[in-house]
Amino acid sequence: MQQWVFFMALGLENSLVLGLSLCLAWLSIYFILRFTRIVDLERPGIYPTIDGLRGYLALSVAVYHGMLWLQFRGGRVWSPSESWFLEFVGTGSVAIFFMITAFLFVGKILESKATGRPLSWNGFFVGRLFRLTPLYLSVILLMLVATGISTHWVRNESLFALFKHIAHWLLYGIAYRPLINEFAETHYITAGVMWTLPYEWMFYLLMPLIALMLLRRKQPLLLVCITVCLGVFILSRHHKTFGLMSFVFGASAAYLVRSARVKIFCTNRRTLLIPVFLVLLSLVVRDLYFVAICAVFLWVVCGVDPFGMFTNKCARALGQISYSIYLIHGLVLFALFWSLGGRNNPDALGHLIGLFAAVPVIVLLRSLMFRLIESPGIKMGQRLRSSRPRRDAQRAALTKVGSPID
Questions:
Q1: Cβ distance 111 to 104 under 8 Å?
Q2: CA dihedral sign of residues 98, 100, 103, 106
Q3: How many other CB atoms are found less than 10 A from the CB of residue 22?
Q4: Where exactly are the structural domains of the chain?
Q5: What pLDDT does 175 receive?
Q6: pLDDT tens for residues 198-243?
Q7: First-to-last C-alpha distance (Å) of the chain
Q8: Is 369 exposed, middle or buried, given 0-12, 13-18 or 19+ CB atoms closer than 10 A?
Q9: pTM of the model
Q10: If you ran DSSP here, which 8-state letter would residue 136 be given?
C-alpha cells in the first residue's frame, strides 16, 4: 500500500487511470449515441469547444473522487488527494466550471450591451431554476434513501432536527450542509460536490448588479459597494479563494475572447503549446497551477480544438449530460465502494477495477437521468420564459387598441 501511495504522488499511474476512464466514457457515450436515442444532441452553441470541455471536466471530477475513495477506504480522511496531479485535475476542473459560468453569463451581458437588446431577468432566473433544481432534488432524494439504508432506517435524531437538516440540503446548502440522521458519511454519498452550487447561485444573484455596472457608463457608488460587499461575503463564507478568482477570470475571458488580437494569438500555431507548457510546469511549481488553468480555459474558448477533441459528437454528448455526471457520480461511487466494504478495505487493484466498471454505469445512468429529469426541466423553463414575452406583448396590444370589453 505504501508503494501505491508513492506512485500516486508521482502522478503517472493517476494519469493512466484518468486517461483510461475518459476512453471508457467516450466509448460508452459512442454506443449510446449509436444504438439508442437516450441523448439527442443539441446544436453546437456559440462556443462549441465549451460544450465538449464540460464533459471532460465532469468525468475528471468523477475520477478524482473515485481516487479519493481509495484514500478514504485506506483509513485516511476525505481530504485533498496525496497526488498533486489528481489534486490539479480535481480543483482545476471545478475552477474551470466556475469560469464557464462567469464567461457565458457575463458574455450575455456584453452581447446585450452590443446589440441593445434588454435582458430578461425573470427569464434568466426561471431558466436557472428549472435547469438546476429538478435534477438536484432527485439527487437529494436518492441521498436520503441511501442515508436511510445505511442507518437501517433507524431515526438517530429528533424529527425537528431531521426535517431541519433536510431543509438545509433542499435549499442547496447555502447556509451549511449538515449530517442527515447523524450519519457520519452523509457528505460522501454525493462525493462532496454540493459545495459548488451555492457559489453558482450567489453568482446568479449578483448578475443584475454586475449587469448594471457593465451596462451603465457611470456606476453608482452604492451599487459598487453592494457588489463588493456581496463578493466579500461569498469569499468569507466559503473560504475558497480560487472560486472567486475563477469567476473573475471567467468574466475577464468574456472580454478577451471578443478581441481579434487575443483570438489570433491563442490560435496561432506558435502559441498552442503555451497552455501545455504551463500545465507541465505547474506540476512542479505548484503556485502556477491557477495560471495554467486560466491559460487552458482561454485557449479553449478562443477556439483551440486539437484533433476535434472538444467538438466531436461524443465530447458534445458528454458535455450535454455533464451536470448529471457531476451530481450523480458520487451516488454510484458510494453504492459501489460502500458495498465493497466501505472504509478500512484498501484493496487498490479491486478498487481500480471497480472504478473502471463504474464509468460506463455512470455515463448510462447520467444519460437516463438527463433524458427523464434534466431535459424536461430545461424545456419547462424554456416554455415559461417564452410565454412571458407573449403575455407582455398581448398586454401592450390591449393597452394600445383597448380591451374587447370596451
A1: no
A2: negative
A3: 19
A4: 2-391
A5: 74
A6: 889 988 988 888 888 787 655 555 555 555 555 555 554 544 567 7
A7: 84
A8: buried
A9: 0.85
A10: H
CB 347 within 8 A of CB 385: no
C-alpha dihedral (331, 333, 338, 339), degrees to nearest 10: 100
Task: Compute CA distances 17 → 263, 302, 354, whole Å.
Answer: 33, 29, 12
214, exposed or middle or buried, with CB in 10 Å at 0-12, 13-18, 19+? middle
Phi/psi at 156 (nearest 5 deg)? Answer: -110, 5
Are the C-beta atoms of 305 and 296 separated by less than 8 Å?
no
Instruction: Give the per-residue pLDDT at 5.
Output: 46
Q: Look at residue 116 in the predicted model and tell me its pLDDT.
A: 81
For the residues of 196-222, what is the DSSP string, one character each?
HHHHHHHHHHHHHHHHHHHH-SS--HH
Question: 64 and 315 in contact (C-beta within 8 Å)?
Answer: no
Cβ–Cβ under 8 Å, residues 385 and 126: yes
Low-confidence residues in the chain, pLDDT < 70: 1-12, 42, 75, 81-82, 216-241, 341-347, 387-406
Q: Give the model confidence (pLDDT) of 108-164 as tens digits.
A: 998 888 888 888 888 889 999 999 999 999 999 999 999 999 999 999 999 999 999
Q: Which three cell numbers stand for residue 1?
A: 500500500
- The one-character DSSP state at 313 is H
Q: Counting every residue, how long is the chain?
A: 406
pLDDT value, residue 233: 54
Q: How far is CA 47 from CA 11, 116, 289, in A?
A: 32, 21, 24
Residue for grid cell 489528481: 86
CA-based diameter of the chain, in Å? 86
158/202 Cα distance (integer angstroms): 31
Q: Which residues contact 42 (CB under 8 A, 6 or more apart)?
A: 316, 320
Phi, psi (5° rounding) for residue 217? -70, -40
| Rounded distance between C-alpha atoms, residue 182 and residue 346, angstroms | 25
Contact 278, 294 (CB under 8 A): no
Q: Which amino acid, 327?
A: L
If DSSP codes are grouped into helix, strand and coil, which group holds residue 67? Answer: helix
Q: How many CA atoms lie within 13 A of 19 on its CB side?
A: 7
Kindly list the distances between the CA atom of residue 60 and the CA atoms of 57, 148, 240, 327, in Å, as whole numbers in the listed order: 5, 29, 20, 13
